[in-house]
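Hi L.,

As promised, Transcription termination/antitermination protein NusA:
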Amino acid sequence: MGKKKESISLIDTFSEFNELKNIDKATLISVLEEAFRTVISKSLGTDENYDIIINPDKGDLEIWRNRVIVEDNELVDPNMEIKLSEALKIDEDFEVGEEVTDEVPLEHFGRRTILNLRQTLSSKILELEKDNLYNLYKEKVGEIVSGEVYQVWKKELLLLDDDHNELILPKTEQIPSDFFRKGEHVRAVVARVENKNNNPKIILSRTSPVFLERLFEQEIPEIADGLITIKGIARIPGERAKVAVEAYDDRIDPVGACVGMKGFRIHGIVRELRNENIDVINYTNNTSLYIQRALSPAKINSITVKEEEHRAEVFLNPEEVSLAIGKGGANIKLASMLTGYNIEVFRDIDEVDEEDIYLDEFRDEIDGWVIDQLKKIGCSTAKNVLATSRERLIREADLEESTVDEVLAILRYEFEDEEDSEEFDDSADIDLNEAQEPEIEDDNVEE
């Protein structure tokens, strides 16, 4: 009865563990058998002559030992051999040299051995569960999963999936305006799975472009069906994103299909991303056209693409420059990310003042990288810079205040010199005129 109770207890304990941790019965049986054989080997030196039969459905476990019959005075190893006198008690027909199989109760191994067996089983099943969790989520990298917020920490969220597996959403992978409370459900994409010291860690992300791509696949049937393909995505999480799409069927308008009637389809995605502004554009293999579309809503006059340098120079009317650059430089940054080209914006040359000076002519006085930063926001000439507010130069060109002040001083000094020389010329003209006036008066007198 003791043996039966012990065996049922072992099977029941780990059957419950199986249900909670989603380990199949075949694997559980294999783990149980391996654990028993390990204990027998440590206790008796070998497990070769033992058969272990496990039936989890009945909660039954049996251990059978095989021994060879020897003469009573020839017994050397009680684990591998049995005396003839003992064998005859089992069956009167047994003879020396034959093999006897008898069942061994659990208590035969001692209470300490059984406790060690429980610990071994627990360790093996925990290890197996970690392997299963790692393999399960390794296959889900790039997929959207949902979890309930279990714990909110300063640097990360701890989520639990439907099977109570732990998922991590770091602060760096959250949209800046994300705010979650305990018990809320959160959707995110599986970014990566780490496995240090056999301790799997599932990292989620809501800022990854892949998250936006999967949301499009869920919300837009034509993308899920393969009629429309996403060719590229660029994101500034929580602020703005650009998505390039292409349809294999000319009868399908890919942009219209993604946006939906009155923006119905894309609105759900925008809400999920905390009102992230999403621009959907038509993809094209024509690099110049692709860059023009990527800079939408700005209207471009002309573009020069330098394929070898992966750089593009875009010329626009002055009123279009701010649209091309966007708030905080977001539009041009996303366009560069989407197309893979470093885009520089210039005011159209026709609009440039004849007395204006290109910034490149100041490279002896201003560092080249500073000039490059200014050109990226559409300030290609001295007067462009002077016409732009100091705050905007600091913010959008990403320059230090002292650097901006130094640049402004250099440029103002250039034009002050010109104004001074013009004033001097004007005054000289006035003096000449004044000198001539008396002569005219004298002529009048003579007349």
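Residues 2-135 form a domain with the N Utilization Substance Protein A; Chain:P; domain 4 fold (CATH 3.30.1480).

Thanks again for sending the construct details.

K.
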